[in-house]
Amino acid sequence: MKKSFWILMILAVFIVVFSVQNADMVSFQLLAWQMELSLAILLITVFILGALVGAAYYAIAMRQKRKNKEANVAQDIPFEKEEKVEEEIKDEA
């Protein structure tokens, strides 16, 4: 398995252990909402949301990279044909 997978798993275990050891109730405010929630639940939720945002960003970046690569390949084909035509013209002359 990839090294990044194991790093993510170790980080997740540390976050879970830290959250469980610090399970006191905390109050937090998000925009207009104010809530009181267990710190463990809050930390795990924020970690999961961060992982989802990171995965979405990675997927979008890979899709864009693939599109750019396909566009570059499509653009290269006519140039190759033009070079062959130019070579044929030179050979005929």
Task: Evaluate the radius of gyration.
Answer: 27 Å
**Cα-to-Cα separation, first versus last residue:** 59 Å
- Give the overall average pLDDT: 79
Oligomer: single chain
* Major beta sheet, strand line-up: 1-2
Helical run tally: 2
Number of strands: 2
User: Roughly what fraction of the amino acids lie in strands?
Assistant: 5-15%
Biggest beta sheet summary = 2 strands, antiparallel
Number of domains: 1
Low-pLDDT windows of residues: none
Order of helices and strands, N to C? Answer: HEEH
Shape: elongated
Helical content stands at over 70%
The chain-level structural class is alpha+beta
Describe the structure.
- The chain has one domain.
- It has helices at 3-21, 39-92; strands spanning 25-30, 33-38.
- Strands 1-2 form a two-stranded antiparallel sheet.
- It has two helices and two strands.
- Helices cover 78% and strands 13% of the residues.
- With 93 residues, the chain is of the alpha+beta class.
Features:
alpha+beta, two-stranded antiparallel sheet, 2 strands, 78% helix
Brief account:
With 93 residues, this protein is of the alpha+beta class. Helices cover 78% and strands 13% of the residues.
Protein topology:
Elements: H1 3-21, E1 25-30, E2 33-38, H2 39-92
Antiparallel strand pairs: 1-2
Helix pairs in contact: 1-2
